[in-house]
């Protein structure tokens, strides 16, 4: 069920006036849908006191969207200084922020710990000594290696660059405790776009087991486990959605069993990106060219710079042509203008006959869509709009312009003079 019919019903009657007012292409996000998904998540996990979603900022790093997350009481999962700054701008501070970085610099840790700080989620034991100070609360990212299989987008854990290995885990917490850390959490992130809810249940079980293993070795308690993001959404019409209610039921039961064995319950944290916003966004384009060679190509006014997933992962994004939904009679490639042949939103897709000027709506672009875009080939990223609860539509990011593209070419001259000849290495040696 790509793009909920509720979003379609809200969007399509307004589409022509939105397109006329703002011009295409644009990503448009549905506040109603985002809030409904947020409330559903909260309701499902209400049996675990202190449950909290830390929205993965990288999925949709727009302040207007982050403000909605903040309003719902969610925290923010950040992995760069820019994401920390964005989250703080909408009011996030301290333990509202989780800093889940990898291959981190001291400079980044300093940014994560200043301005009210954040929960530091460490990717390696060696990083303990790169923190500017010892935080009260620390979390490690666990990589279970061959104990778990991953999936296509994120890779198998043994080959993944992330986290602390199984054998290192106890030593990692021991090191942190020896340095003076007093509060602990445990994190992992193993799958991406996984619609089989039992995978996430196994992840929660795995973390609770590790908590028991570490606790008994070191006599420490854990305040939370964070099962990461990776909850999948149905991109294809035939995909079945993730059964969130079943997932929450099984995870809640595992927490209750943990509580019976250990006399306390850690909190459950989650850092979904895609599940929260993916289905609640669409990329709206206009068909501008049509060409018939060995195949039929429909050229639209957006390209990969607006949505990388099809070109990068061969990902499927459902496409509809408003007003022409009933007749998928032509097989076409829907393409952008980039000089790369993988700049295709759809390959050999049965679609209704598309004429120049038709709106072509690319579904489920609310996560890892605009955010992943790039400027290769001088292509600029489109604007972002928000369809708000009251039916108004607001510009929440303007389109990139040539002056943005050239901004980094405006700088003060700087030149390192050539070294004097006798000082060069080959002469000195
Ligand atoms: C990307 C990412 C997420 C969000 O992933 P989704 O698949 O969008 O849910 C969460 N946590 C970490 C550490 C990530 O890198």
The radius of gyration is 24 Å
Any idea what the CATH architecture of the largest domain is? Answer: Alpha-Beta Barrel
CA distance, first residue to last residue: 69 Å
Major beta sheet summary: 9 strands, mixed
User: Strand content of the residues, in percent?
Assistant: 15-25%
Low-confidence stretches: none
CATH superfamily of the largest domain: Alanine racemase
* Average pLDDT, all residues: 95
Structural class of the secondary structure composition? alpha/beta
The CATH topology of the largest domain corresponds to TIM Barrel
Ions, cofactors and other bound molecules:
pyridoxal-5'-phosphate
Question: What is the total number of structural domains?
Answer: 2
Helix share, percent = 25-40%
Number of strands: 18
How many H/I helices?
Answer: 13
